[in-house]
Amino acid sequence: MTDAPDGLTGRHGLAPLGVAAAIFFMMGFVTWLNGPLISFVRVAFSLGDASAFMVPMVFYFSYFLFSLPVSLVARRLGLRKGLAGALLLCAAGVALFGQFVAMRMCGGALTGLLVMGAGLSLMQVVINPLVSLLGPSERAAQRIAIMGVCNKFAGILAPIVLATVVMGDIGNIARRAQDAADPATRDAILNGFVQAIYAPYMTMAVVLLMAAGGVAFFPLPELQAPALPGLTERRERIFRPHLVFGIAAMFLYVGIEVMAGDAIGTYGQGFGLPLSQTKFFTSLTLAGMLAGYVAGFVVVPRLITQERFLELSCIGGCVLTGAALVTHGYVSVLCVALLGATNAMLMPTIFPIAIRGAGAWTPLASALLVMAYSGGAIVPQILWR
């Protein structure tokens, strides 16, 4: 089945979009485990809040570290092999993280996150241009909104699954470990606690391996952004104003998204809310993002342009941030969760606008935007301190 030439995916049909949607679901599940993992790691390794934020810091810093190298890999391997390789790297990172957490080796667990981030960097460099260019440019935000729905639906499920299957009564376990009479007793309590993470993470690694095998044999179109009329594809032309501002916007956006999603549990704990509740708060933000993506899919470009939606999202985010600052407790937490709705359509509009006219430099432009995801490592650390 294929769309009309001016439809959502043009002549390429819906199958490549379906593959991309499945990959975005897996990316979302792996990525949005970071929120409750902050609380999990804090208890498992007896860390303070600032040290526990090494989880998102290492994860998002990997985008800065690996995006340019993997753009060269992506250009050499092409779309299909690049995605398969990305899934393999993610599988390795997930397996390493699960293994080292179960062994209570913090450095090894962070290494697993770094490997996972390398895989996701390659995946983002390859898959975002695919979705942006898989049909008419004026419907790019719609296509990315569909990916966002899949990503954030997985993001809603991931914290709930982790909190239910792995974290259990984390508040009680934390108190028992803190009140333990001696280090041996405390270690026994925490060793039993961390074992619960091993089987779920190994299962995820197997699923990612199977997905890599499936993608390796699926025919995907090789796409690149057409050059803007009258411009040559020289290296210096890659840094056009819309790409430069797009990189800055992406850096700030991802930093704010991580604060609203991954840090909302810690934010709630700052008001004295119990761990038994705050471990689910990331799902609230992701539910807001899901609603924002659905709204974007409905109104763009039928009622407003993707550029206008971007402006409205930024205004809404400023209003909610101000409301969170002047309120307390559950009301303030709700304002932070609703930031998910205003954040939702920033990525779908920033990416297609920023890579316009990149031509043969599409992988590099994509890599530079993905490098800006490192805002998720830097902005929370600045604000937290």
Describe this entry's structure for a reader.
The chain is mainly α. The protein has a single domain (10-384), classed as MFS general substrate transporter like domains (Growth Hormone, Chain: A), CATH 1.20.1250. 76% of the residues lie in helices and 0% in strands. It has helices spanning 15-31, 34-44, 49-52, 54-102, 106-133, 140-167, 170-178, 183-194, 198-216, 241-261, 264-270, 275-278, 281-299, 306-326, 329-343, 346-354, 362-371, 375-384. Helix 1 (15-31) runs antiparallel to helix 9 (198-216) and helix 2 (34-44) packs across helix 4 (54-102). The longest helix has 49 residues, at 54-102. It is globular. The N and C termini lie far apart (53 Å). 54% of the residues are buried. Mean pLDDT is 85; it is low at 1-5 and 228-236.
Features:
single chain; mainly alpha; 385 residues; Growth Hormone, Chain: A; 18 helices; disordered N terminus; globular
Quick structural gist:
The protein is mostly helical and 385 residues long.
Structural class: mainly alpha
Q: Strand tally, please? A: 0
Low-confidence stretches: 1-5, 228-236
Query: So what's the CATH class?
Result: Mainly Alpha
- CATH names the topology as Growth Hormone, Chain: A
How many structurally independent domains? 1
Radius of gyration: 21 Å
Please name the fourth-level CATH homologous superfamily. MFS general substrate transporter like domains
Number of contiguous helices? 18
Helical content stands at: over 70%
Question: What is the overall silhouette?
Answer: globular
Largest sheet, described in full?
none
Alpha carbon gap, first and last residue: 53 Å
Order of helices and strands: HHHHHHHHHHHHHHHHHH
Beta fraction: under 5%
Mean pLDDT, rounded to whole units? 85
**Overall CATH architecture:** Up-down Bundle
